[in-house]
Amino acid sequence: MVDNISLKEEIKDALDNATLGRTLGNFCKTYPKRRLNSYQGIDFKETQQAIKRVKTFAAEHVDEMISEFKKNCEARGGHVVVVKSKEEAAKWVENFLKEKDIKTAVKSKSMCSEEIHFNKILKDNGVDCQETDLGEFIISLEGNSPVHMVMPALHLNKEQVADYFSEYTKTKHEPIISEEVKTSRRVMRDKFKNADLGVSGANVAVAETGTVFTMTNEGNGRMVGTLPKNHLYIFGIEKFVNSISDARWIFKALPRNGTAQRITAYLSLYTGACEVTTDKESD
Hints:
This protein is α/β, with parallel strands linked by helices and 283 residues long. The protein is built from twelve helices and eight strands. 55% of the residues lie in helices and 12% in strands. Strands 2-1-3-6 form a four-stranded parallel β-sheet, sandwiched between helices. A four-stranded mixed β-sheet has the order 7-4-5-8, with helices on both faces.
């Protein structure tokens, strides 16, 4: 009963919040038209049915998908761990952090990591984790969890963000979006370069090649995926498709539905693992 009362109070507070109502109201007025415009020149029904075929096949063959993905990823130097509960995931992560002596981490967006409370696992094990997606960074300062899968800080306006940044950096910030973006870049730069671990989500996982795809707009995903010496992907089985060809249908719809874009700024493919070496003689 206490939880029900608390939820009702939260709902009432949200309904009484004029700033929240205005922020979400403006979004709801503009987004549907932007999304509709992004589909101009695209056969929506064809795309919808193709995705249905691709995802239905993956769901009906999920055990085969996992096995095939694991085989192909590990053949290219990666390591795949399959867990069946958040408790099992937490135990594996704890052992991994100890084995690799992880002290700092940078994290790109991963909704699956939210489901298993990954940040809490890091905190409980003494790991300093920096959210690098701008929206996720902002709500971490708010002490909140994502309110939307694609736009996690949708409920906040630039004035509120400026207040959070001012408190975090101990310097005055004006509510100017371009300046707020610059602040986040300054905060992230050293974190990217010095982190022991990078953590990412995945938009698509391709069984036949062991490849994961990420679609981002900020560039932080590539920094997280390439600079730290250890890199961990966290994603659910719903991300599997059979082939690269199947994945193309996801790319037609995902950015249009998520952000009303035809394509995101960055579309990255990672297959297995790689080691970066320096040819000293050529330096």
